[in-house]
Specification:
By secondary structure, the chain is an alpha/beta fold. It is built from seven helices and eleven strands.
């Protein structure tokens, strides 16, 4: 992939080409905390007989040792100035990188939102806190994106975090974390890691770790789940109640059927209309107001 400087990137965005090429950055300047490394090279583990979603193959990355963010800018004529960091799911073992990453970025771009796809470390090494490395990467990514707000022409007060399945839990815990879960490494870590709005999709838990708390200053939440998604719908509903008891703005959509791991791919299940509900919520929240920094 061709890498442009950011000055060239945004000259391109306002000049002859309306959509800039994606740009990828390392999340950590000198590698992740404590010299973390997977056992073996990164690869796509989906085989010829891998499970299809809506009739299409899914890219399932594993052995991710170098976390990155990839920035996808919308058409300059649509750009609202809002941004969303996207965390794919995969049980903290793999990342469904197209289904819950790049395809989500394409949709966000279509509604005028800059999308930043996070490739966080997998598989998890902390067996007690399987979410920890992912949340560390998400915290760092949020601070990094917010530190680049002027450079990337985004509003630092309209940067959200959206995740799917395990990425949804990552989103939830990042939004509720009481403090940074790693030692500061540079000036980027002086910038807030907390998202301005949080969107865990078929993910999350009412059983919060001690590192997290629900308080009145939590960001607003948007959540989607299906009744037939094992027992996850109960946990997500319980979390919604906890948010409302703390007077945190929240919207929850529970669909009768849909299962798990559908992303934005359209099927005959009503659950696949959820992106329309999210776009409506983002408009109501003022996130899609065209108010460029």
């Amino acid at each position: 992939m061709k890498i442009l400087s950011f000055s060239a990137l945004f000259l391109c965005a306002i000049g002859s080409c309306l959509v800039a090429e994606p740009v990828t950055l390392d999340v950590w300047p000198e590698g992740p905390p404590e010299g973390w490394s997977a056992e073996g090279p990164e690869y796509d583990k989906t085989g010829a007989d891998g499970r299809l979603v809506a009739g299409k193959r899914v890219t399932r990355l594993t052995n991710v040792s170098i976390p990155t963010i990839t920035v996808y800018k919308p058409d300059s004529k649509l750009d609202t100035g809002a941004a969303v960091v996207v965390a794919p799911g995969g049980g903290f073992n793999i990342l469904a990188f197209d289904l819950e990453g790049t395809e989500v970025a394409e949709w966000l771009n279509s509604i005028g939102v800059t999308a930043i796809v996070l490739k966080y470390r997998v598989p998890a090494k902390d067996k007690e806190k399987r979410w920890l490395e992912a949340v560390q990467d998400a915290q760092r990514a949020m601070s990094l994106v917010r530190s680049k707000a002027d450079e990337w022409n985004i509003d630092p007060d309209r940067i959200g975090l959206m995740g799917f399945s395990a990425g949804g839990m990552t989103t939830q815990f990042t939004a509720l974390a009481k403090e940074r879960l790693y030692e500061s490494v540079d000036v980027v870590d002086r910038v807030s890691f907390r998202p301005d709005f949080a969107m865990p999709i078929y993910g999350g838990s009412s059983d919060l770790p001690e590192e997290c708390e629900i308080s009145g200053d939590c960001p607003p939440f948007f959540m989607v789940i299906a009744h037939d998604d094992k027992d996850r719908s109960i946990s997500v509903a319980q979390f919604y109640v906890l948010l409302k008891e703390a007077e945190v703005p929240a919207e929850l959509h529970i669909y009768e059927r849909g299962g798990h791991g559908y992303g934005l791919r359209r099927t005959d299940q009503p659950v696949t209309s959820w992106p329309d509900r999210l776009a409506e919520w983002m408009r109501i929240q003022g996130i899609l107001d065209v108010n460029k920094p």
